[in-house]
Amino acid sequence: MGLRKGQKELVEQYRGGYCAIPAIPGGGKTHCLSLWTAEMIANKLHKPGKILIVTYMNSAVNNFKQRISAELKNRGIISNKDYFVSTIHGLCLQIIKEKPDHVITNEEFTIIDEVSKINLIYSCIDEWKRHNENKFRLYIDESNLSANKLSDTYKKWQEKLCNIMLSAIGDFKCRGIAPKQAMELCQNLGEDSILSWASEIYEIYDRRLKIGGFLDFDDMLYNAKKILKEDELLLKKYQNKYSFVCEDEAQDSNLIQSEILEMIANGNLLRVGDSNQAICGSFSNSDFSLFKSFCENPKTTVYKITQSSRNTVDIINLANYFVKFVREKHPVPECRESLLPQFIEPVGEDDPRPNPKIDEYGIRVGIFKSWEDEARGVVIKAQEMARKYPDKTIAILVPTSWRMNVVLNFLEARHVPYELLDNTSGERNKTLKKLGRVIDFIAQPENGQKFFDMMNECFLADSYDDGVSEDEPDQERKTVNQKIILNEFLKKYPVEKILYPIGGEIERDDIPKDLINSSIWTDFTDKLEVVRELLEFPGTIVEKLILFISEKLRFEKEERAIAQKVAGDVRYLMSQDPHWKLADLALELLKTKNMFNFFAGIVWDLKGYEPKPGVVTVATYHKSKGLEWDVVFLTSITNADFPVNLDDKFIGEYWYLKEEYKNPQAIIKSDLKKVLGEKIDEDSILQSKIETISERARLLYVGITRAKEYLFLSSFEANREKRNEILPSKYILELRKYIEELSK
Q1: Which CATH architecture has domain 363-421+610-743?
Q2: Strand 242-247 relative to strand 50-55: parallel, antiparallel, unpaired?
Q3: How many whole angstroms from its chain centre is CA 418?
Q4: Could you tell me the pTM of the whole model?
Q5: How distant is the alpha carbon of residue 463 from its chain centre?
Q6: From the annotation, which residues make up the binding site for ATP?
Q7: Residue 427 confidence class, pLDDT cut points 50, 70, 90
Q8: pLDDT value of residue 588
Q9: In the CATH hierarchy, which top-level class contains the domain 7-97+222-305?
Q10: Which of 114, 202, 410, 697 is 20 to 30 A distant from 380 in Cα terms?
Q11: Residues comprising the binding site?
Q12: How distant, in Å, are the alpha carbons of 141, 152, 193, 652 from that of 157?
């Protein structure tokens, strides 16, 4: 079966009890967990129940299903009845549907999407503010703000409060604390306690969720655990249903998720993860220490996966050097345990999947004079690598979403094909944008610009690229010229003359001479017929119009699923607000962040992401986890994005707040421990800085290990010796010394 160290022990030896698999990046944990599942099923060792695999992403669910199915097929078994793969939220939803009356008064509940959730919490804060304006303003350092900046600062503070409050509410739910109990716990904290505010806003938020018949993701975990605790028969049913419970990405687990899985597992619990890739704590309730503690439990059998064939030996050595530096020389001693001593080993020369080899030292470092200079330099180098190695995949990683725009602008200016890896753009948003363009035109069919935009984005964008090879440059030039001529034709004539010419066909004299009798013109006239069909469809039945558009634009399976969801939502929206028109729907669909993005993201996640050679992927470091590319650029390795010292800049601190309130999330965590009678850190702000430094070290480690062959690290400096000074992180300076020594 071609198994390596750790993999072999898992597949051949684990047959029950507690088991942990610490796996280094690229260690093939999905491969070996799928093999173990197939081996257990083939030998009927999973009986009497099924094997449950809980993983983090919808795409990972599909990946596991396909791999397990393939492994079983190799053994002559065609069945999916012996295993179940799900996200934790999918599992919890299944549990809630068994007893919906425990959660809500009827079975008609909906899972709220992220856009609606943000809108809801914003309105909850508004309601709370009406009675607590003084509290809201208490944290703001108004002495440092001019009168005309106060209004902007209030707005900025409310926007930050949305995420802070959602995180605090998540903390309450993760610990099984209901709104009423939260308010009772916080009643003696005082009006300056942001946790006390959170308990009050939690009550408003919970009430509004219930009125709307909504559950959020934290509710799903909270209620699933509550149901299992209260209903012994249901718990027994799940314990009998699943003989083995496996948790993938266990380093990102949280307390309530761990408790649910332990209850169901009834002693047979397998956890797979990498503590050095625990990077979700700053924006979720995940707890880095849970998997580590599970591995250290005397009852747990541990099989370590330490070999990886993903990276070149040079990149493996750099990753290991970084782990060693953090553990032995980190300037903040409390941060030295942020990375565990799990060192990556290359595979043996006889391994069927060897480590990649290149003819040069493929790691470089660059430090620039500004973020714009860095972004420009990275894009130029990425374009150069794409031309030099057209068969290789390339990614540019940025630490935060707001840095992306500069990178994207340079990519577009240099005409570099790219894909943005998030839920609001690229392939994920293309379907919504196509629907938006068509509906926008149907709402105003006399508008020439809307017609032009629709034709270019929905009908002409990819129509004329087939059949043009790199060996036919003259044909390619001719095709490009014909596209330009066709665009000029669209701009020249009114919409009605193009769509409804007097004689039924466009006059020959009006057709550009370079297009007469061309395949482009024939194809174009066929598409005009489709546009006429769309215009003639009754616009009053909007949900059917959307499905008709998806049919006429020949949407693929994933696109049709998104169109069906939009159609269903629109029917509901229009029943709630009769004044909602086609133009309103078009406006919503064409927004970068719209109410349908969340579902579209889920659909594309299920399909899975595959990097394409010649197309530069742009993503945050967080989004890159679990992925790999031949060439990777790690950008903005600064003291703000990757702090090392306690006096570095910290993203969780807000300059417009008073000194004692600059890190509100740290105050919340400290106050929550206080009201629950847990051990409190003497300095909550200091502890928060230590946690941030530790997590950012792991984030950089994740970035380094995404690269298979070539790795470029970069940073910049700005505003030297000013309040908003940004300098290269100590990490990149340390790694530069190591890289320069080896590259000699």
Answers
A1: 3-Layer(aba) Sandwich (3.40)
A2: parallel
A3: 17
A4: 0.80
A5: 31
A6: 23-30
A7: low
A8: 83
A9: alpha beta
A10: 697
A11: 23-30
A12: 11, 9, 16, 13
